[in-house]
Design goal:
The complex is a heterodimer of chains A (234) and B (299). Chain A is mainly beta. Helix content of chain A is 12%, strand content 47%. Chain A has 2 domains: 120 residues, no CATH class; 51 residues, no CATH class. Chain A contains 4 helices and 11 strands; from the N terminus they run αααβββββαββββββ. In chain A, the strands form 3 sheets. In chain A, strands 1, 2, 4, 7 and 11 form a 5-stranded antiparallel β-sheet that branches. In chain A, strands 3-8-5-6 form a 4-stranded antiparallel β-sheet, with no helix packed on it. A two-stranded antiparallel sheet of chain A has the order 9-10. Helix content of chain B is 61%, strand content 7%. In chain B, a hairpin with a 5-residue loop joins strand 4 and strand 5. Chain B is globular and about 55 Å long. The chains are: A mainly beta (234), B mainly alpha (299).
Chain lengths: 234, 299
């Protein structure tokens, strides 16, 4: 019996990498997110599924092109609760002026009146103190220098928030200018069963398996249909 | 799905871990893995940022509609596939051929599609991606050679399944090589087919790749510890420097995503990327140079 158990154990251990948790979410968006009824929409390669825990927020950076319509559909495992927060931001690099302060400690030199020397430097410090050049007093002072540099920063501008739209899980829009967008997806903490026992640990969070599940984001696109009487010849 | 999936999730994490914790002693009660134990299992989750790269079909669908003609000369000849022997070359050229396949499918060059699919299949075997290209997929392609929409859909399915497979198996470094080469091939084909003065829409789309480039670089940087990715990243940083020369022009209003007439949501405003003929040629030259590094075969 014992060797039988060992065999099961060995098999289970060998299978562990194959049955990794990440793979559980494989194709989740394809299988569970509601596709468009309009058959003109095609699946977009930027769609994604991922494992989430309650209280987790993640971002998906996508490119949307001018002249195309996009449809976003979200889906999630039930054990994550019933609401999914979804925000859309524009993300762009901007050049900003930044002032950098540098603090340094410098020696304090004797003043002319205290050493009977001659000459000035930095106000009234002596070049020649009793014929022996500059003499440090043994004290130090803090000197702050400022440097201005142009740096590139990434800015986020909020464009859409589904908490202002009845927690909608679908969004459809026409894109008039190509943009790099950030889709921010958050799973509210403490919803659902109310038995969350997540333990904060650094940047990550230790979660019970029942507080975790898959989230899918299905992106579809099509060429923006031309409407109106274009090209009718009248 | 829901209840069953919950149990499946719990078992996937719980069972192996519970079994591992049972390794300590001879008399470990393996059979007593109950629901209580599963519930106590913990997993670390972190907030993540994912950088997505549009797949080749999106670009090719667009340029076909914009009127750009099919250019067979721009493709990497299938005969080269046998010459790629090192894993980095194989992964990169898998990306190149995937884009070529998407291109032939978008332009309904059915016989070419089947040939390119063969090259991809060969490379997939060599880099451990054969599970994404099973026999049924080949049969579906052969059965749909006269149906453009189905062919595009099936070739997309094969590409997406590779992306999914690599993501879910935490082979982001390999995916970085495949996706970056696939993207580069789309840009190479467009740059070497479009005429600056004539093909306005295609040239604009090429300029817009400046934004895709940002995602690509950020994605590759995540895996920069891998020597192969690091090499490719260095090439793409050179291309990024060329793209950085492109200016931006305000459309006159701030960016917004709001409902317009008819209740349709519209993403508009913000800025638009501008490209001059000299910049177009500079991008074309740099892309060609990098692409040549990837597709070259030892004489």
């Amino acid at each position: 019996m014992k060797s039988y158990k060992k065999l099961i154990l060995a098999t289970a251990i060998a299978l562990t990498p194959i049955l990794s948790f990440g793979q559980y979410c494989n194709y989740f968006h394809e299988n569970f997110c509601e596709p468009a009824e309009n058959e003109m929409y095609k699946p977009n390669g930027q769609s994604k599924s991922a494992l989430f825990g309650k209280g987790q927020t993640s971002e998906l950076s996508v490119i949307v092109y001018k002249g195309q319509d996009y449809r976003i559909s979200l889906c999630m495992d039930e054990n994550l609760g019933s609401g999914l927060e979804f925000k859309v931001y524009e993300s762009k690099k901007v050049k900003v002026e930044k002032v950098y302060e540098k603090k340094e400690m410098e020696d304090v030199y004797a003043k002319c009146e205290s050493c009977g020397g001659t000459g000035t430097m930095d106000g009234d410090n002596c070049w020649d103190c009793n014929g022996s050049g500059q003499v440090a007093t043994g004290d130090q002072k803090e000197v702050i220098t400022k440097e201005t540099k142009m740096v590139e920063e990434r800015q986020k501008i909020l464009l859409y928030d589904n908490t202002q739209d009845n927690m909608a899980t679908e969004l459809e829009f026409t894109c008039e200018t190509t943009q790099r967008l950030i889709f921010e997806i958050s799973v509210p903490d403490g919803g659902g069963s109310g038995s969350s026992k997540g333990i904060s640990k650094g940047k990550g969070k230790l979660m019970k398996s029942s507080d975790m599940g898959c989230i899918g984001i299905l992106i579809e696109h099509m060429t923006t249909p031309i409407t109106g009487f274009y090209g009718t010849g009248f | 799905m829901k209840k069953q999936s919950k149990i499946a999730v719990a078992l996937m994490i719980g069972l192996p871990m519970a079994m591992l914790t049972s390794c300590g002693g001879e008399d470990a009660p393996i059979e007593n893995v109950d629901e209580q134990q599963v519930e106590e299992v913990v997993e670390e989750v972190k907030n993540e940022s994912y950088y997505q790269i549009p797949s080749p079909d999106e670009m090719f669908g667009f340029i076909k509609e914009s009127g750009l003609k099919y250019n067979k000369e721009a493709l990497n000849p299938i005969q080269n596939a046998d010459a790629y022997t090192d894993p980095r070359q194989q992964a990169l050229n898998f990306g190149i051929y995937s884009a070529d396949l998407a291109y032939t499918a978008a332009f309904e060059e059915y016989q070419e599609s089947i040939k390119y699919f063969g090259s991809i299949q060969k490379l997939a075997d060599q880099i451990g991606l054969s599970s994404a290209f099973d026999k049924s997929l080949v049969e579906r392609i052969q059965n749909n050679l006269d149906n453009a929409d189905s062919l595009v859909a099936i070739t997309n399915t094969s590409y997406f399944s590779v992306v999914d497979y690599l993501e879910q198996n935490e082979q982001g470094d390999k995916l970085g090589l495949v996706a970056s080469a696939g993207w580069l091939e789309t840009v190479y084909i467009v740059a070497n087919t479009a005429k600056y003065s004539k093909d306005k829409a295609a040239v604009e789309r090429l300029a817009d790749q400046k934004l895709t480039m940002e995602n690509l670089i950020l994605y590759l940087e995540k895996y920069a510890d891998n020597a192969d990715v690091s090499q490719v990243l260095a090439w793409f940083k050179e291309l990024e420097a060329v793209y950085a020369q492109l200016g931006e022009e305000s459309t006159g209003s701030g960016i917004s995503l709001k409902k317009k007439e008819g209740g349709k949501m519209v993403l508009g405003g913000g800025s638009k990327i501008k490209i001059t003929e000299a910049q177009f040629n500079a991008i074309k030259d740099k892309v060609t140079e990098i692409r040549n590094n990837i597709v070259k075969t030892e004489a």
